[in-house]
Each structure stands twice: as C-alpha cells, then as structure tokens.
Amino acid sequence: MYIINRKGKQEPVIVERILNRIKSLSYGLSDLIDASRITNAVYAGMFSGISSTELDELSAQECASMIGIHPDYSILAARIAASNLFKNVVKKFSQSIELLYDSKGLTTKKGIIADHIYKYVMENAEVLDNAIVKERDFDFSYFGFKTMEKSYLLRSGKKIVETPQYMFMRVAVQIHIGDLDKVIETYNLLSQKYFIHATPTLFNAATRFPQMSSCYLLQMQSDSIDGIYNTLKQCAIISKYAGGVGLAIHKIRAHGTEIQGTNGISNGVIPMLKVFNETARYVDQGGGRRKGGFAVYLEPWHSDIFEFLELKKNHGNEEARARDLFYALWIPDLFMKRVDQDSHWSLMCPHQSPGLHEVWGKNFEKLYESYEKEGRYIKQIKARELWMAILVTQMETGNPYMVFKDAANRKSNQQNLGTIQSSNLCTEVIQYTSPDEIAICNLASISLPKYVNQKEFTFDYKSLYEITKVVTVNLNKVVDTNFYHLEEGKRSNMLHRPIGIGVQGLADVYQLLELPFDTKDADIINQRIFETIYFAALTASCELAEKFGTYPSYEDSPMSKGLLQFDLWNLERAEKNLPPVQLSGLWDWDELRAKIKKFGIHNSLLVAPMPTASTSQILGNCESFEPYISNIFSRRVLSGEFQVVNPHLCKKLVQLNLWNEEMKQKLIAHEGSIQAIDEIPSYVKAIFKTTWEIKQKEYINQSISRAPFICQSQSLSLYLRNPTYSNMTSMHFYAWRNGLKTGLYYLRTKSAADAIKFTIDPLTVRVASSTSISGSAENSENNSPRIVSACPLKKPDARDDES
Prior knowledge:
Layout: E1 2-4, E2 10-12, H1 15-24, H2 35-45, E3 50-51, H3 52-64, H4 72-88, H5 93-101, H6 115-123, H7 125-131, H8 142-152, E4 155-156, E5 159-160, H9 164-176, H10 180-191, E6 195-197, H11 199-204, E7 215-219, H12 225-240, E8 244-248, E9 258-259, E10 264-265, H13 269-282, E11 294-298, H14 305-310, E12 326-331, H15 333-341, E13 344-347, H16 362-373, E14 379-382, H17 383-397, E15 401-404, H18 405-410, E16 439-447, E17 452-453, E18 458-459, H19 461-481, H20 487-496, E19 499-504, H21 506-512, H22 520-548, H23 565-575, H24 589-599, H25 613-619, E20 632-637, E21 640-645, H26 647-655, H27 661-669, H28 682-687, H29 696-706, E22 718-720, H30 725-737, E23 742-744, E24 747-749, H31 762-769
Parallel strand pairs: 1-3, 7-8, 8-11, 11-12, 12-15, 16-19, 22-24
Antiparallel strand pairs: 1-2, 4-5, 6-16, 7-16, 9-10, 13-14, 15-23, 17-18, 20-21
Helix pairs in contact: 1-2, 2-3, 3-4, 4-8, 5-6, 8-25, 9-10, 12-13, 19-22, 22-24, 22-29
C-alpha cells in the first residue's frame, strides 16, 4: 500500500509515522486520548493511492467519530484538520492577501481584496506576518474549524487560501487600517477567542465590498406599487450582501379596501408577502453562503392579521402560504390589556384608520379608541380569539415572534427620532426607521467563558470591562469603514451610529463555576456581566465623544437628558410601584454620568445580545445566553454526523471516575438528560440541567435582570416540553408585565413521541423509559414519563446571530 504525497510522488505507508503524528498533536489533551486506536482505525480505512490530504481528512474524521468518548477528540480532530490546511496554503498572511488580490483563476478582472487593503498589507507585511500565531488554530473544536473552512475562509477560485488566523488578521486590518497597534491588538483578542465579530464582518472584511453589518430594519416606503416594489428591491440588495431584514408592513392597506387610483379592491398583505417570500428564496445571503432571511412585522390591529398568522403553517391553502419568511408581531400594550380583560378588539385598515403605526403609548390608545368610537374598523372580535390564534401558530411553527411596541419605544434612546416600528430578523435590534432611513446594526459577541478563572472559580469583570471597550471602538470603526449599498442605510448609520454588543457562552460560565443555571448566584453573575458590558460600552462611547463629538442625532435623546437605560426602566417601574433596579457597586456610575453630561456619547445604542448560532460553533460555546438544550447532541459536517457530549459534563464525570461507555449509553438513552441517572451526584445534576429541565420563569427572570443594561433588546427564545394555552399565556404575560421589549424570539418545543435508538443497548432504553424526567414548572400538568428526541428542536430554519 502506498500514499501520494503533496509533491505527487508515491511513498510506502508507514504506520508508525501516522501514530507519531497523532501523538505529536495530542499535547495537553486528556489521557483518555488513545493514539493507537485512532491509528488502527485510520489504517483500516486507507486504500492504496490515498493522497496525504485525504489521509489527514480521514484521520480527522476518525477522531471526530470518537468525540463521544471524550471531547478532547474534537480538539485533536481540529488540529489534524488545521495541520492539513497549513500544508495546503501559503505560509504567510501577506501571501494569502496577494493570492486573493490577484485575478488568476478568477472570472473577475481583479481578485476580491480591496486595493487599499492590499497596499497596506504589502507595506506592513513583515509586521503583520510576524504577528500571526498559527498555533492558535490548534485550539478550535473540530466543528468550529469545519464551520470556518466551509463558509468563512476565503478562496481563490475553489481553493481555500486562508487559515483562521489569516481571517482574524484580515478582519483586524479592515477595521483599524492605518493603526498597526490597534490591528495587532484586535487580531490577538480575536484569535485568542475573547470576542468575535459577526458573520457578515468575517465574510466580507477587506474585500472590495466590505459589507460588515448584520441587521437591517426598514419599513414599506409607501402603500403603493412604487413603494412596495422599491422596498422589495431594497430587501433583495440587503440579502445579496449577507444582511438580515426586519420589515414593518403596518401601513399596507388591508384586503378588501378600495383603491381609488384604479377603482379596484386591495388584495391585502398576503399576496404581497408571497412575492417577498420568493425574493428571500432567490436572493440568498452572501452568494449562497446561507439562505436569505426576512422577518415581517405587523401590528395586531391590522385586519389581515388572521391570514398573516396562517402564512407559515404546513397545512391549508398553498396560495395563502409563504413559509420562507419569518413572522413577528409588534404588540401595543392595549392589545395585551384587552386580552387580559377578556374585552373586544377592533381590526382596522391603515388606509381607513391612518397613523396607528406612527404613535405609541397613550397617544396610540387615544387614537385607536377614537377610531373605535367613530366606527372606523373593519371588524370587532374578542381579543382572546386573536390571542388563541397567535398561540396556535406559535405551537405549530415557532412563530410569530412577539415584541412589545410600547416597551420598545418607551425605553429606547432613539425615542426622540420618532416611533420605532419594528425589530430585526432576530428581535434583538430595535431602531428607528422611516421611508428615507434604513436602520443598520453592526454586531459582535463577547466569549464569556474566557473570563472565568477555573482554578479560583471566579469571573474577571475587570478584563471584561477592558475588552468590551475594545469591542465598542471596533464596532464604531465598522460604522465608518463599512460598505453601504443603500444610501438610506448610510444616512441612518451616520446619523445615529448604533452598535450591538452581545455575548455567547453564559451557560458555559455557570457550568465552569459549577453553578446551577436557575439559582440566585447565577443570576447575580448574569446581572453583573451585563452591567459591566453596558458600563464599559458607555465609557468607551463617551471617550469617543470626547474626541470626535456626539452622534448627530444626540440632541433631545434620553441620554442627552441624563437618562441611562436603567433610568428608563426605573421610570417605568415607579409607575408600576415596583422596586428600582439594583446596581452591583462594581462600577462608579456617578462619575460616568458626569462625563456623559460633559461630553455626551458617540453611539446612540450599544448592547443587543443576539443568537450567535454560527460564531458560537466557531468558538465552541453554548449559544448566546441560553442554557444547554441537551448534554448530548449531533453535529453535522460534509463528512458525516457525529455525536457530541457536553464537554463540561464529560470532564466532570471523568473527574468523578464516572465516565465510561456504560455512562455514555445511559446519557444517550435518557436523550441528553442526567436527572434520572442514579450514579451521578445530585449537585452535578443541578449544574447540568438542560433547558427542558429549567423552569422557564427562572429563565425569563434572568432576561429581566439583565434587561436594564440592554439598550436595544435580546433574542429571547423560550422552551416548552408540552406547550399549552395556559402555560404559554402565563409566560407571555409574565414577560410583558415585567417590561421586556422582546417577549419571544422562537418558541421551541419538544416532541412527545419517543425517539427510536439504533445505537444503544435495548435494556438501557427500557430502564430509561421507565423513569420520569421532570420538565419545567410550566409543564407540571403534563409530566408523564417519556423519552424525547436528543435533537428535539422544532426550530423553523434557525437564524444566525448575525442575522
């Protein structure tokens, strides 16, 4: 048997060389890594004439197949894959930029790197090349590395010419071109996983079209053919450049309304949305890297609301379905009050009852009730009839999202601009839009596990503060260096300069500190983390204002009047006779207030925790601020599907001498839950509860605790094992009454059907089946014993962080 080396020559297969290579890459990993076992598996899968690249790929896949034995196999698999990539790319960062700049092998006259970036890198090649620490590519998990390899690393033709380190340096150069110290600082923080910029930034930084923004919010330009199709074109262009869309359609007239210009009758919003649906399908994000994402927002007084709720369902009239869009409700307080009071609700047409989408709070209630008195409605129904229709749709599809209009406006630093009419694709960005302003947000997420001292079981708030300031400066620079494909977007971003800082790995922090998610101690850390982020972001933005001045629309904003985000919450809490927000004492807010009073701030909005689906996988963290869905789950890459065990749980069980093949089989049998496994101590069970075993009220409480330090909003998904009208109503009203802006991103449910398990001992399944697994408190009425799928999400095409 022979292999073909990278020079194209034949070499005999020497098993010892394979073994030594695997051993050499296993430094610092668990003693459970069995290099001989991997080598034997690789040898068994080889064939005569296999190339060196194929041999590395096979070795990485064999390691990945053993991740269920110990999570360090994932790191070893990634190291093999990274080492393989190193051998197939150029040796220096500057050389990769040169390849990407050159037009050889490409259909365009020039490559994809911008001229000024190429020039800067060539002028500073030695410094930039020497700053690269390629060994940091050995710290990724296999699935994080494969995610980058598949979608993020740039190619010349079909060949990857970047490593992850080159990608991070490319991003750093784009953001801080002209300031080498800042370039190197950002590169080091990115490559050491302290934070990560959002997907569009990683995709497009340093290219000829560096569109680095994640989220776009717009409204229909007008209720006319020109307005609708101009807006459609804007959505298509945004999607082309990898942006996610949040679209407000409240002003579009309802079905059956007269059209004076043609003496005809309006078809309403449904046929229009089918056109938007096909556009989202056709114009995917970033040229095929991921599907286009449009979230459509409608207020519940619109008389097309019932048909709107049907659009994503899997049954019914196909002519009335548009399943590739995402649907969201922009809910005024008045609707929630009417549902609570079991009162009537009037459905209206914006053509006959104009201006409702342009007002909020008391002004909305006054206008709405005046239209009711005048009989200017299409139909009156019981408010709870519509409420039930919303809940049915959420249980079937996970949509519609629920964002509370009055809370979003009442506690926004942009409320001086006018009425905010929607959120974004993932419900964490809340900004003002108008026909001539498209709101844009640039995102990054902080990798919270990096700030945990595992030896001392402490969290480093000082480092979090310092690095949050760097993130703030970076995102502010993105506002200036971004490519704006729509003038309305550039106008908005330059006027208001909003940014969105999020997090990932909050659940990992709790598990590293050995704290159960649903405890007071965990919630204290949660609150302190977000207070620190908000304080640091405000501090950095104030320092920018001292240098460059306030953002242009600063005057008359709440901040200009001395009102910080938690002050706006306190005003609302005082009206409800609730206690004020408690500050931790970690930071000197009085001193910061004085500085803001003197200098102002440079960015209207700062904090917006997003879902982080893709970048969490890159950095190996649990998504955003969410709990773990399961302690064992599947990861799929091009080479196959692999089982992954929660690494923190696995390491804890190894420490307790409880981790073995039998324990793994029990974990699979119990579908990722450890609550019914007798050998595991109760304190470990408490630490490693999955989201299905955490009371959703406690999960919402953490969102409430952090919310006074979030000046935009947060992508709050909720998880119910057995959703009912009762527990869903209770959940939504609890979020609304406690002032959350986003009441729901996705509703995610668990199937009641037993999963069929082909890979475990049938006796283990029978034992697991006989044991009750408790759910959340909201599900207590349906706590019957069952096994549920290890990958149980009813998740309609989950969106990214990063929209």
